[in-house]
Write a structure and sequence with these properties.
With 406 residues, the protein is α/β, with parallel strands linked by helices. It folds into two domains: 212 residues, Glycogen Phosphorylase B (Rossmann fold, 3-Layer(aba) Sandwich); 186 residues, Glycogen Phosphorylase B (Rossmann fold, 3-Layer(aba) Sandwich). The protein is 41% helix and 18% strand. The chain is built from 15 helices and 14 strands. Strands 3-4-2-1-5-6-7-8 form an eight-stranded mixed beta sheet, with helices on both faces. It has a six-stranded parallel beta sheet with strand order 11-10-9-12-13-14, sandwiched between helices. The longest helix is centred in the first third of the chain and has 21 residues.
Amino acid sequence: MSKRVVILNQWFDPEPTFKGLLFAKELQKKGYTVEVVTGYPNYPGGKLYSGYKLSLYKKEMVDGIKIHRVYLYPSHDKSKIKRILNYGSFAFFSLIFCLFFLKKPHALYVYHPPLTTGIAAAFLSKFKRIPFVYDIQDLWPDTLKATGMVNSNRVLKIVDRVASCVYREAKILVVLSEGFKERLVDRGVSPDKIKVIYNWADERFIQSNIGSQPRNINNTFDQDYFNLLYAGNFGVAQELTVLLQAAELLNHNKKIKIYLMGDGQERERLIKEVEDKALENVTILNSVPLSEVSPFLNSASALFIHLKKDPLFEITIPGKTQAYMAAGKPILMGVSGAAAELVQRSGCGLFAKSSDAQSVADAIMAFASLEQSQLDEMGEKGRQFYLNELSLSSGVDKFASIFESL
């Protein structure tokens, strides 16, 4: 009889997520019966996806995976109250569902953030004795402080205490970098309880589309230019205004174009900034489904990653790093620390200082001066590094070993 693993994750396909359907299907291939408890898709725009209607519960079957969707308050804007309602509603309704309506699994996989999902998992562990693996993608309260979402030291201390309680209840903590592990050990977590597993890319949409072009001809990049693309969340942590400041410094260069594609709470402000500064070398594209992102990545000359300058982000590896490597494209990395080390080890890109527009502009100029053969070589190095060290298969093997240990 196969062992049952339940994935508890507030975000799941069709939303962009690191540990979504691809993860569930790969676990199932390895002999596990996998079910998912999640919410109704609304991330990152905060609006319910087309084809979905809010209700207390909805069951889906997707590619052999049973998905249980429970009620949540859809929101992802700057309002702290609405964000709390979003996180809290999912935690409450997922806890009620798992306590009273879900057959007890052998193990629970829990995705963090938000911390509220971890709180629900801790209650489940107490009352139903379900061991859970806690996959920490953001360190709270560090991320809350770094992004400006919470500024009250009192609240941050409370969050820290709650997080410590969740860590104690979890059987295993999984983190995405050695830096994360060191930070948790400094907080008193046993190093034996922590496993480092690098994130992987959504390989369905990355490697299968190498060389393809965007369907919409209006969005196709002009190959006579050096085209730098940022694709992803327009959030506070990404501080994309730095890229616009760099574009302003490069406005005189008629051979460089900069594209931003995505959605998030900063989108309208960035659009206004482009208009106010009359940045002719910047285009902000509409967000597209994850399944249609890859052709845009493949058509760009290089891909941009940036997080604001903060000690927390120096131990973070943005998920785009792996996706860009898997796509076989050169990377302009505007994040110091662990993410920059991956790019350096693979030889797949150039670096810029976080929150430094001049440094970003200089790096773009350096990229634009390279021959196409040099760009291609960088991209291929990144792709090979990903396949050898960061792939889905190797990552899921590590998770499978953890589940077996439980």
